Amino acid sequence: MRVIICENYEEVSKEAAKLVAGLVNLKPDCILGLATGSTPVGMYNNLIELYKKGELDFSQVKSFNLDEYYPIAKSNENSYDYFMNDVLFEHINIKKENINIPNGEAKDADKECKEYEEKLNASGGVDLQILGIGVNGHIGFNEPDENLIAVTHKTGLTESTIEANARFFESKDQVPTMALTMGIASILKSKKIVLLANGKAKHNAVKALLNDEITTSNPATMLKVHNDVVLICDKEAYNG
Ligand code: F6R
Q1: Sheet of 153-156: strands edge to edge?
Q2: 134 lines ligand 1 (CB under 6 A)
Q3: Which domain holds residue 114?
Q4: 152 pLDDT band (50/70/90 cuts)?
Q5: pTM score > 0.90 for this model?
Q6: Are 191 and 228 in contact (CB under 8 A)?
Q7: How do residues 23-35 score in pLDDT, each as one tens digit?
Q8: Residue 117 Cα, ligand 1 centroid: separation in angstroms?
Q9: For 93, which DSSP code?
Q10: How many distinct structural domains can be found in the chain?
């Protein structure tokens, strides 16, 4: 795993945006795997800026998001559908039909997950997957557990994730307890993976990722089996 240690969050965001922009320029019809949460927002801002300066064109880009709460209406401000439009999609020229996010409104969650995985496979595969990391080492909503489901699936959220995500909601009991998420195998199919981490709160997760053996009790450690992962983190996440 290549590790890029940055001075601060701004630098993490710039470095990550550079990698994404490089790929979009090199392969205008690339497939991006995207994440929500606070971490990638700075990167998205940098990408929006490059687009506005005329240096990036997303007209042929396709995207697959990692996950979505379940059940949740797309119009709910806390849905990842709403979030992605707000922080990225409505500011760039990506086509609506090229955007894929697990559907939190689906009546049949298992069918939705099966179809999402099929669409992901039929697309030819993600060229570059952006990931954040949970304080407990989750990636996507693959939470630490004894057993993990490999492909896109419905899952419960752990108490620690519900607590971490409560900051986006009015109260903790409003955080959905279920989600639809790409599985670890879905994520590992990406040609390139860029994992972003910033802040002291992520130090233990980053340390375990770099030093521990592969274990389902820290899902991020499974990234070690992939041969093209770049971790971009700030000094706080790296050093604690
Ligand atoms: C988001 C996702 C999650 C987050 C992780 C970190 O789509 O899949 O795994 O990347 O929870 O969240 P933040 O960036 O808010 O600390």
Answers
A1: 67-70, 178-181, 153-156
A2: yes
A3: 2-239
A4: very high
A5: yes
A6: yes
A7: 999 999 999 999 9
A8: 20
A9: -
A10: 1
